[in-house]
Amino acid sequence: MSTYDDTVDPADEHADIATDGDDRITAFWQAARGHVGFGKLEGVVGAVPLDVVPPPSFSYGEGAEADDAVRAILAQQRTSASTARDEFGEGDELPRVGDLAIVLDSAGEPRALVRTTAVTVTDESVQESYELVYPTRGPTPAID
Question: What domain of life (predicted)?
């Protein structure tokens, strides 16, 4: 489990940042795609829409809070987050195992790609566990 685990306001935690036209996020996604099994050819022909469109991006708060969270994620010290259940609106989707997201720092720079590994929903909260997918240490997986 996480050595850095906290409760955050989903308004801060999942504050979507527009990705349309954001070259930084697109470039980050192109570099990270191979780590989730998407190859270059699929992106060219658009075999699966998920391999072409970057996943949602967000920051954990603002300023130092966002930067601290990114550092903890990159050090693999932060692997989960908890959100009050009643903070999700009626149309909001809850996290699902396998979901991907790009975590941004306080300057809006993409710093980490994470994948949801477990979700626990109670009457009061949603506990989401995730793993760092990119960047990682070691060799990059082969890309077709």
Answer: Bacteria
